[in-house]
Amino acid sequence: MPAAAQLSLPEAVKAAQLYKFASFVGWPDDAFPSPTTPLQVCVVGNPTVTAAVARAAEGQTVNGRSFAVRDVPASETDTCHIAYLSGMSGADRAEVVTRLSGRPVLTVTDDAHGSSRGVVNFRVLDNRVRFEIDNAAAAHNGLTVSSRLLALAVPR
Amino acid sequence: MKVTGTPRVCGRGPTYSNRHVRARTSAARAAIVCALIAGTLTIARSAVAAAPSIEDLSRLSIEELSAIDLQVTSVSRRPEPLSKAPAAIYVITQDDIRRAGVTSLTEALRLAPNLEVAQLNASTYTVSARGFNRFEAANKLQVLIDGRTVYNPLHAGVFWDVANVMVEDIDRIEVISGPGGALWGTNAVNGVINVVTKGAEATRGGLASAQIGNVNRNGALRYGGALGSNGAYRVYGMTFADGHTVNANGTSLGDDWYGSQGGFRTDWKTDGNAFTVQGDVFNNPFHTGGQARGGNALARWTHTLGAASSVEVQTYYDKTERVTPGVVDAVETGDLQAQHTFATGAHKVVWGGGYRVQTDRFSNTLNGFALNKERDTTYIGNVFAQDTIALDSDLALTLGTKLEHSTFSGTEYMPEARLGWSVTDDDFLWGAVSRAVRTPSRIDRELQFPGLLLPAPSFDSEKLIAYEIGHRGRLSPRASGTLALYYHDYDDLRTTSLANGSTFPVQLQNGMEGSTYGLEAWGDYALTSWWRLSPGLNVIKKHLHLKPGQTDTSNRQAAGNDPEYQASLRSSMDLGRDVEFDIGIRAVDQLSNPSIPSYYSLDTRVGWTVTPGVELSLAGFNLLDSHHPETGPAPQAEIRRTVYVGTRWRF
Asked: Complex ipTM above 0.85?
């Protein structure tokens, strides 16, 4: 399993957290064409993490939907429900986050700052993988975030 | 042996207990145990090796994922199929503690399948591993809180009523069953419990916590903030009122007790250096007059020398005293420890040493029990070394030993050899042989009562040679399991022997020996993404007997009073996005010396995160009986059914 062997522990923890966010976030009804449409999890610029998320989410469901995990280029993140902007420069990231603002996409970034942060931003604090949540941005994107996830988030 | 107002060796004393805190080994040990989890000491410092598989991580909850310590490189939560620790270790996480709804350290310890936890009365618990669980006999477990020992050297054992921690501050509790003498020193015979609290960085902001129930009431307040640009601090205060136990008819025994505690912790970093300073004070008054009170302060410095090498120095001071009308019982400790970790070739080495000064005082005007001197000071020095040698990419041999010298009880050596083999990606096998000792306390050697009990100046250490093997593995994509088997060979266990062979007076002697063997097993099964089951099983057989020609008027009290089996099953469910629902069932076999019937216990908690800052919970314990006994001489105090409502508010 070469993909897993190259995965570092922080990356693995983020990959596991990524698909679990889906259980704590609500998307507007029109984000899914049908009740059985899988939840689209897209990863930009990090095929190792994509493979890991795919393995972690295999066989899992949230609200009866399965997961569809894939690599996408930055330009194709519009149709994703969760978009992990992993291997991108700060400027490119900010551009994507701004473009997706107002659309039902949970943008996730990695140790980003200022306006290049997504709705969720991973940060390593005290040797642990934590995340910040921009609840206002989530609401602007039409997403509802559960209290339990907000309670777990660290202050921005 | 623990002494109440009247020592239990010769009769019944008051129902409160004398407990003390002695300070021992360094918090660096916590790092070593964490390193044991990773299998090799320096890998513990680097985040780039032997990551757990994504399947293992995907079985954890999002809270658990947020709690994984990247430095330890192990999943600090079962299942741990890729954990390379060559020992029987169970980690109770903060998530376990929260979901079980427990409000004290001893209740949290019930979650470890490899521990025996029995409540004696409202304030007193007895905890052991692999046998010997009984108030007078539970002297073979080494317990540390953030590197400070809470094993009382005057009485030989842990007094849990003065070992309190704010449960919301606990990051994890590492429970090792089996000897740990090479790293943890004397008295780490049957196990080591290492309570690790969160760093101050992880407890920023305010937290108010309260639980109110029919038996217990607790409240705690904590506030944390930044200290400069690279540090953090927290301060806390807590108070509790634990309700009484009852007799077999349900009548109150009037042993309600209460207490309060406060403290602080600060952590800060500069280039290559990390510092921690922390301290606590507490006061637990007794209904019958007097109180148990104490305080401690600890400082630790870790300096990184290179990629796989560091130095750690720790010092602490601890004073605990128990004052009741007629009896004063106090222990005061100063401790200094240092260790160096480094790697060279296939070797990963940690070595170090420490020095401790401990003064104890026992004054008794109630009755004739006394020690040679009321006050005495002991000096203890130790050196240790441990080397983990990679024999192969999948095979590691760990050799270690500690040498300890006490001005009271002499020199002891505690060697160990452990082998760990990663058979496949999904299976880990380990084996170990080790030697451990329980050193004599001042009470063992000096307690006397004219005409009844002679002092025993040549009372020797109790000794153990332990042989263990274990397996840890992923049984299926959704299930993992851990199994440990052990055979313990004991010598020189304590007896209360007739000094002249047939008549009083008695004297404490090392008149018992024998063996125990058993099995510890636990597992984890993810039925669905939101429902997990965790079974546990603990079986022990004891064959402890008197040496030829020996007598024991205590009827082998030092052998403990242990159930032949304990079984448990926990179910953890996430209902919707904001609700947690946990149920646990425990089955404990009967005890025989003295006789106590077997019991089942059903515990449950529902937790609801109402808003990001507010959690409400409803919890119940011992729900199947209105009351039941767990340990102690007849007539036993019985533990009541408990229900509480609670809240945690973050601000």
From this structure: yes
State the count of interchain CB pairs (< 8 A) between A and B.
108
The CATH number of whichever domain residue A103 belongs to comes to 3.40.50
Write out pLDDT tens, residues B318-348.
999 999 888 999 999 999 999 998 889 889 8
Instruction: Please judge whether B65 and A16 are an interchain contact, meaning their C-beta atoms are less than 8 angstroms apart.
Output: yes
Residue of A15, A126, A151 with shortest CB distance to B201: A126
Q: How many domains does chain A have?
A: 1
**Distance between CA B185 and CA B626 in Å, rounded?**
42
Partners of residue A126 in chain B, C-beta under 8 Å: 198-199, 201-202
Q: Taking CA atoms, what residue in A is nearest to B55? A: A56
Taking CA–CA distances from A51, the nearest residue in chain B reads B54
CB contact at 8 A, B102 and B125: no
Range of the domain at A42: 2-152
- Which residues of B fall within a CB distance of 8 Å from A56? 54-55, 57-58
Mean pLDDT, rounded, for B6-35: 25
Contact B158, B149 (CB under 8 A): no
Q: Do residue B65 and residue A8 have CB atoms under 8 angstroms apart?
A: no
Asked if B303 contacts B334 with a C-beta cutoff of 8 angstroms, the reply is no
Burial of B451 (0-12, 13-18, 19+ CB in 10 A): exposed
Q: Could you tell me if residue B504 is inside a domain?
A: yes
Number of domains in chain B: 1
Rama region for B156: left / alpha / beta (φ>0; ψ in -120 to 50; rest): left
Give the pLDDT band of residue B44 (cuts 50, 70, 90).
very low
d(CA B447, CA B444): 6
Residue B58: list chain A partners with CB under 8 A: 16, 19, 55-57, 60
The answer to whether the Cβ–Cβ distance between B51 and A56 falls below 8 Å is: no
* Residue B2 located in a structural domain: no
Residue B7 lies in a domain: no
Shortest Cα distance, chain A CAs vs residue B380, angstroms: 35
Residue B126 token pair:
């007895």
pLDDT in tens, B461-498: 999 999 999 999 888 878 889 999 999 999 999 999 99
CATH assignment of the domain containing B477 = 2.40.170.20
Q: pLDDT digits over B47-77, tens only?
A: 223 446 787 788 788 888 887 766 542 222 2
| Residue B5 belongs to some domain of the structure | no
- The two most distant CA atoms of chain B are separated, in Å, by 72
Domain limits for position B143: 14-650
Nearest CA in chain B to A13: B65
The reply to whether residue A16 touches residue B54, judged by beta carbons under 8 angstroms, is yes
CB B165 within 8 A of CB B195: yes
